[in-house]
Amino acid sequence: NAGVTQTPKFRVLKTGQSMTLLCAQDMNHEYMYWYRQDPGMGLRLIHYSVGEGTTAKGEVPDGYNVSRLKKQNFLLGLESAAPSQTSVYFCASSRSEGSEKLFFGSGTQLSVL
Amino acid sequence: GQNIDQPTEMTATEGAIVQINCTYQTSGFNGLFWYQQHAGEAPTFLSYNVLDGLEEKGRFSSFLSRSKGYSYLLLKELQMKDSASYLCAALDSNYQLIWGAGTKLIIKP
């Protein structure tokens, strides 16, 4: 009954450091997403994937890279972290696009100093 | 541009009824979602409306008027555990979700 699992839950980086967030889902979903959530703003889509081996840019892709080498995993990378990337990051998955509901991971609180 | 508007914060009393409104402006429209998000947790799905009208699910109901670009979430018999943020999200013509900033609902005993 794991659903969508995100690691780590908390991370502190210094400006310029790199890191990777891992998202894993066990529901055999085709679609996976990375969002960021900032106070006073709606969820913003960073990148998404419509299937294994595919990725696409969302609304705020700059400074982030993603990979979907296996259907169940979706990785989000920051090559050179900036304070503006301090946020809560959520991974989500869905069976298909459109009217299908999203299943979210528990989130990662990232602070960039 | 595309936009979702919902109140920032609302307060209600345990046992009462509360209505959370959401207005949207999108390029095309393919439905509207409501999600619940408790503090420090992930959003969880509540409802999806694509046709006009009211859909009831236990204590929660969701209403949609496509002609007015308007939706509301109605919560009845409020419980303390309903204290959370409620996120409204509209699906545009490209099947991209446009999210509101969320309404923080505070329930008082």
Concise structural overview:
The complex is a heterodimer of chains A (113) and B (109). Chain A has 113 residues and is mainly β.
Tell me the layout of helices and strands.
The complex is a heterodimer of chains A (about 110) and B (about 110).
Chain A: E1 4-7, E2 10-13, E3 19-25, E4 31-37, E5 44-49, E6 56-57, E7 64-67, E8 73-78, E9 87-94, E10 103-104, E11 108-112
Parallel strand pairs in A: 2-11
Antiparallel strand pairs in A: 1-3, 3-8, 4-5, 4-9, 5-6, 7-8, 9-10, 9-11
Chain B: E1 3-5, E2 9-13, E3 18-25, E4 32-37, E5 44-49, E6 53-57, E7 60-65, E8 70-75, E9 84-91, E10 97-99, E11 103-108
Parallel strand pairs in B: 2-11
Antiparallel strand pairs in B: 1-3, 3-8, 4-5, 4-9, 6-7, 7-8, 9-10, 9-11
Cα distance spanning the termini of chain B: 40 Å
Q: Strand tally of chain A, please? A: 11
What characteristic shape of chain B results from the CA principal axes?
Answer: globular
Q: Rg of chain A from C-alpha positions?
A: 13 Å
Helix count from the secondary structure assignment of chain A? 0
Low-confidence stretches of chain B: none
Helices and strands of chain B, in order, run as: EEEEEEEEEEE
How is the main sheet of chain A built? 7 strands, mixed
Q: What share of residues of chain A is helical?
A: under 10%
Structural class of chain A: mainly beta
Question: What's the rounded overall pLDDT mean of chain B?
Answer: 96
Along the chain, the helix and strand elements of chain A come as: EEEEEEEEEEE
